[in-house]
Specification:
Ribosomal Protein L25, Chain P; Rossmann fold; elongated; 14 helices; about 25% helix; seven-stranded mixed β-sheet; binds magnesium ion; binds adenosine-5'-triphosphate; alpha/beta
Length: about 575
């Protein structure tokens, strides 16, 4: 009895695809090993939704000792480019997955797919149609009204073979003819109403050059490519569910490997658009600075911003797979980023919004090197020397001339701790002629070295700081959500998602960082104490370090930046 319960529990913890795979393995349906694939169309950079699909396909292959192919579905020469192929490979690799030698292109199969088409013509299952795209669409009917037969539907097999060959040979202009499958013009499934299999497109292809001027439609290339590769579990998003009967029809007519398609709900995220077409519009319209702009939901943007592959994999794992459309809160992704960065980054001190503090009883021209812990939660990350001197910077928001209730940081007459350094007390404020605070004059308690209380007296605030003469000036790029509304695509009448962009999604600040940070390289990550997690940007030069704020420390940022 208890045994069955345990078994059921294990079963229930599997997602529906794992369940199907385990059943297929058990029933002997899988003869060798399971074979999955990630099939991007190289018409843009990958986004976080693709990351979900990559983790799923490569993850299942790994879990069940199978294989996962990387296959480029490159059937549309007009929108595709090698730049995209290269970026896709880089992103999949960066996410931590390896396709070994299994890198394929639908275009590798163009000869084979052409043969498949010829076979369907020979079997009387496909015909060349001279209708324009508009005529085809006007005669398709509606889900409840059957479509009309094409006047070319009854062409003889010989005539079809002849015309199809001439299409291939370039005798006709774009759009003059198509090859259509002869399925069922009355099917309630519109996909089955004599769908187009091939179209004429006199276009250069990034792999096959000018060899072809006819190209298979996605629906005639995708399923056939899966069969050619022996894909046992062809996993895709829900919108392809209605295409499955057509894929199955082709497999049956052609009598080829019975690849089976399974659908899951695509990842949608709040404050994010997730379609390559829309992301391309942001890039082309210069609304962002390229595909890898750190505000973009692309894998390359997230990498540049400082997200880690591990955080993205953990996120993908945690959201699991659903069969119904849903929207994931972007805060969940940020949670996983924070969780990982908290473990791996050293904590350093940086002042983003500075005000000067002068320690009046500290000797001029003296520097002390104090011990700073790189990660107080993880001793193994060691310590560093932090210079301390008479003049320092602290965050302007850590001081209030007239403190509000429960303000425990620096204020006239109030004592606070400077992290790793000393207790200081504010005695005087110096202002310029406009009334702006120029410096805060304090005294320190030499007995409180290391920030330890000399006599048991307590202070409530601990501030981060940077020694002014030792500080390095750097640029901090502070990012906010790229869109102002949770669902950017839900734009008002006559407006587009672009109108929902947040005009304040990037704020650039000069900041002071402790000297230790000068050694960081592009891509290296650090926590600025009390401010957030940052990543060194590729725009850094020998003279100036540029930091991207990857993610805030919970909601501390609101306090420190003064943003509410
Ligand atoms: P987009 O709409 O962004 O252009 P796409 O589906 O056209 O996406 P493809 O290159 O065809 O882009 O996608 C490759 C694979 O990634 C497909 O199997 C697709 O189902 C999957 N995929 C795309 N977007 C998502 C998403 N948001 N969530 C999960 N999987 C996705
Ligand atoms: Mg697609």
């Amino acid at each position: 009895m208890s045994n069955t319960i345990e078994k059921d529990e294990v079963k229930n913890s599997l997602n529906f695809l794992e369940q199907i795979i385990e059943d297929d393995i058990k029933s002997g349906k899988i003869s060798k090993h399971i074979q999955t694939r990630f099939p991007p169309e190289p018409n843009g950079y990958l986004h976080i939704g693709h990351a979900k699909s990559i983790c799923l396909n490569f993850g299942l292959a790994k879990k069940y000792n199978g294989k996962c192919n990387l296959r480029f579905d490159d059937t549309n020469p007009v929108t595709e480019d090698v730049e995209y192929v290269d970026s896709i490979k880089e992103d999949v690799r960066w996410l931590g997955f390896d396709w070994g030698n299994n890198e394929f292109y639908a275009s590798d199969y163009f000869d084979k797919i052409y043969e498949f088409a010829v076979k369907l013509i020979k079997d009387g299952k496909a015909y060349v149609c001279d209708m324009t795209a508009e005529e085809v669409s006007n005669t398709r009917g509606t889900p409840t009204i059957p479509g009309q037969f094409s006047p070319f539907r009854n062409r003889t097999i010989d005539e079809n073979l002849n015309l199809f060959e001439r299409m291939k040979n370039g005798e006709f202009p774009d759009g003059a003819k198509t090859l259509r499958a002869k399925v069922d013009m009355a099917s309630p499934n519109m996909q089955l109403r004599d769908p187009v299999m091939y179209r004429i497109k006199h276009a250069h292809h990034h792999k096959t050059g000018n060899k072809w001027c006819i190209y298979p439609m996605y629906d005639f290339a995708h399923g056939q490519s899966d069969s050619i590769e022996g894909i046992t579990h062809s996993i895709c998003t829900l919108e392809f569910e209605v295409h499955r009967p057509l894929y199955d029809w082709y497999i049956k007519q052609l009598d080829i490997f019975p690849s089976h398609q399974y659908e899951f709900a695509r990842l949608n995220m709040t404050y994010t658009v997730m379609s390559k077409r829309k992301l391309l519009e942001l890039v082309k319209g210069n609304h962002v600075n390229g595909w890898d702009d750190p505000r973009m939901p692309t894998i390359s943007g997230m990498r540049r911003r400082g997200y880690t592959a591990e955080a993205i994999r953990n996120f993908a794992d945690r959201i699991g797979i659903a069969k119904r459309e849903n929207v994931i809160d972007i805060a969940l992704l940020e949670f996983f980023v924070r969780e990982h960065l908290n473990k791996i980054t050293p904590r350093m001190m940086t002042v983003i919004n500075p005000v000067k503090v002068v320690i009046t009883n500290y000797p001029e021209n003296q520097t002390e090197y104090l011990d700073g812990k790189n990660n107080p939660d993880d001793e193994s990350m060691g310590t560093r020397k932090v210079p301390f001197s008479r003049e320092l910077y602290i965050e302007a928001d850590d001081f209030m001339e007239i403190p509000e209730k429960k303000f425990f940081r620096l204020a006239p007459g109030n004592e606070v701790r400077l992290r790793y350094a000393y207790f200081i007390k504010c005695n005087e404020i110096v202002k310029d002629e406009n009334g702006t605070i120029k410096e805060i004059r304090c005294t320190y308690d030499p007995e409180s070295k290391g920030g330890k209380s000399p006599d048991g007296r307590k202070v409530q605030g601990t501030l981060h700081w940077v020694s002014a003469p030792h500080a390095i000036t750097a640029e901090a790029r502070l990012y906010d959500r790229l869109f102002m509304s949770e669902n950017p695509e839900d734009a008002e009448e006559g407006k587009s998602f672009v109108d929902n962009m947040n005009p304040n999604s990037l704020e650039i600040r000069n900041c002071y960082v402790e000297p230790e940070l000068a050694n960081l390289k592009v891509g290296e990550k650090v926590q600025f104490e009390r401010v957030g997690y940052f990543n060194v940007d590729k725009d850094s030069t020998d003279k100036t370090l540029v930091f991207n704020r990857t993610v805030t420390l919970k909601d501390n940022w609101a306090k420190i930046s003064g943003k509410k």
